[in-house]
Amino acid sequence: MLNYSKEQIWDLYEELPQELKDSIFSEKNADYIYNSCASNGVRDKKKISEIAKNVGYVFLGLISPKEFQKTLKKLDLKKETAENIYKEINDYVFLPRKNILEKLYRVEISKMGAADREKNNRAAETRKNDPYRESIN
After folding, report:
1. For the CA atoms of 36, 42, 47, 53, what is the dihedral angle to 10 degrees?
2. Which of 127, 42, 56 lies closest to 84 in space, CA to CA?
3. How far, rounded to the nearest angstrom, does the alpha carbon of residue 104 sit from its chain's CA centroid?
4. End-to-end CA distance of the chain, in Å?
5. pLDDT in tens, 16-36
6. 93 CB-near residues (< 8 Å, 6+ apart)
7. What is the pLDDT of residues 112-127, one digit of tens each?
């Protein structure tokens, strides 16, 4: 995991737009993070703290939202759990700040709604059951 000194963090914080400063210390965001972890079975306070720290790193510009998704997978979470937490935090914490984060990272942030997830699931099923594909075994 990434570790930065308090001085480095505060220097970056001082340069942020006010909206991101407010987001870092937002009680609402803290609730979203905690509730997302709890609803997905993550109760370990160290893991929840690490997830929250990395959300802050996204707001500070230290890691991108996509890199945040990778950090979840490094926390010894089940793949499905990490994906669900990422989707919820993306939708409720990052997406409301889409415009400012896109400026910070120069990437597009979009909501992965139920329709998108269903489309991805159908595509995966099609690949599994394609009668024209040869087995690699």
Report:
1. 0
2. 42
3. 16
4. 37
5. 999 999 999 999 999 999 999
6. 23, 29, 32, 33, 55
7. 554 454 555 454 454 4
